Records
---
Amino acid sequence: MSRIAILSDAHLLIQAERFRDENYRSPRGETSLKNFSNVTSQVVAEKPEAVILASDMFDERE
């Protein structure tokens, strides 16, 4: 049986949503990046054969 992980809606650029300064991260942005890091660590620990990144991985800048 194959093991596949599916990650979606990460919104990794939410910290840049309304800010032009690339070095600034909003509290929502920090939370988003921390959550994604936690999830990817869990996925790595499970050793899936494939990882699918689906839907809204990044937000557009204004």
---
Amino acid sequence: MNEAIKETIIEKIESYQTIVVSRHIRPDGDAVGSTKGLVKVLRDSYPEKDIYLVNEDYSDYLAFCGGEDVLPEAAYENALLIVIDTGTRKRISNSKYALAKEIVKIDHHIEADPYGNVNWVEDFRSSACEMIADFCLSFRGRLKLSQEAATYIYMGMVTDSGRFRFEGVTGDTLRLAGALLDCGVDYETLFANLYSEEADALRLKSYVYDHFHLTEHGVAYIYMDEAAIERFGLTFEEASSVVSELSEIRGSLIWVAFIDNAAAGNIRVRLRSRFLGINDLAIKYHGGGHNMAAGATVFSREEMQSLIEEADALLGEYKATHEGWL
């Protein structure tokens, strides 16, 4: 079935003169890598077409990837819009998306909103970039995969899989990554851009280690209040990323970061886990995502505490019914 969907998508691409590519708001490495990678592939493969990368939200830490395009409303009338790594239409980082003649959705999140005229969703994939790599390599006779494009796509695979450590990484993931490396990916420069850290980032880690809490059964959580966010000059994505710092605590299989969002009157939540799923919990608190990586929103400290207690009960039940979890 997916081979047929991929064939449909490339036929759509080849039939349109104007193609717009967009991603989700508050973009991460996968969202940026998949969209910039596909745009580069399409521009190289179809130089006669008008290919645009249009988004209204950016991430400072990915500024090294370069800028994007601005497109007037009139250009959407006969355009194909490809939206990548975006589960629901409300998260599309392009407010003009509905003006497009047709929409193709390419995504690896659990299906919640099939907003595309064509929907290619594979929630077992470790990243959207893995799907883009598969797409480009499936049509290598028609699509040109340059070193630059391969580097963007490889970036998304690396970041969204936790350097190939998270759930969803398979032999196919690594084979696709290997094919990208064969295109000449400069991973040393890429990793220097992604992972070298400023002194303030190390001080932030120190703050996280000093301020996280553990529940009875081992849920590790931290609350990033306005004062902490201001102290370290963090963007929302930077504040959210501290959840990953809790993943190395032995005995802790669920990690949660609460990020104060006073301007919107809520507290954003980032949930991660090992071995047991937390997506159902995220859905209960106005969110969702992947089985072991999801987002949510709470609207008070009391609701935040309720989420912590439910996560603790979930983890306690898991540990009581599973041997050898570590």
